[in-house]
């Protein structure tokens, strides 16, 4: 199983609907089927003792004055300021992103209150993901970061975790599961756990009802993504990532069992397209691998459709499988020993079913 960096892309319940999160994200491809904004705490004013203040006090050169001793060669305030200031071009990529984010009214991403990345590893990880998603190009990363802050300020994804969704429309449609290397949860150790988001599009009872209200469906899918991010727990991270090392990602599974790929509806297509855009734009570099289960031969059409929306790098993470029971065999060599056996029986494992073990957005 490959572990290349990822963009957010997500197909939903069928080919028509070509989810981070991206997964990572990511979103359903159905073809038929804050914390308080992190307030910037201003640093305590620096107390300068009289001796220091005199050393950098401005020199009055308006009228030369006689002196019996050689004049001291001290820098003027302007010189001192010039030597200490740093131009934007001299700032590190992470510092440039922080400078851009500081001017925004919203200071939270993925449940993490943003802070100076030089002193806050979780913020550093988030910024690095935006850089990785844009191949290290700072301006592009900055643009995506600011647009994500705009979107989160408007959408308030964290509040969707408390929203009640329609049970008739969304019950059993998606879950988040976490599998750890030991018996105890390794909440703050990404190397000791694997997070999965599951999209079970065969559970959709009515395509028009589930996908008919586009905003409602997108909100449900975003809530599922935020649940996955809670399990990844970037906020508790103590180890930075790089362009090549990033364990803060999740695996996505899209199960199309029972879905007719010929039952494509306009509302399902619109829902998939919108989710792919939302997750791709706002949840970069969160997708580890994406598996499409119980896929018929017609998926050739499905992949042709996805190529229009996702990058080649992301497509390399997509794995179509005709039988869902073979999924466990894909996890022989992973950071969690015996991961395949921990999956539900219907996917080739020996673990609890998704309804018992998984977490999902609230429904009523």
Automatic annotation (TrEMBL):
Gene3D superfamilies: CRAL-TRIO lipid binding domain
Reported cofactor(s): heme b
Biased composition (Basic and acidic residues): 36-46
Domain spans labelled CRAL-TRIO: 247-355
Subcellular location field: Cytoplasm; Endoplasmic reticulum membrane; Microsome membrane
Main location as per UniProt: cytoplasm
Keyword Transcription regulation among record annotations: no
Membrane topology type: Peripheral membrane protein
InterPro entries assigned: CRAL-TRIO_dom (IPR001251), CRAL-TRIO_dom_sf (IPR036865), CRAL/TRIO_N_dom_sf (IPR036273), Sfh5 (IPR042938)
SUPFAM superfamilies: CRAL/TRIO domain (SSF52087), CRAL/TRIO N-terminal domain (SSF46938)
Record field: catalytic activity: a 1,2-diacyl-sn-glycero-3-phospho-(1D-myo-inositol)(in) = a 1,2-diacyl-sn-glycero-3-phospho-(1D-myo-inositol)(out)
Record-linked PROSITE patterns: CRAL_TRIO
Compositional bias per record (Low complexity), positions renumbered to this chain: 1-24
Protein name: Phosphatidylinositol transfer protein SFH5
Lineage: Eukaryota, Fungi, Dikarya, Ascomycota, Pezizomycotina
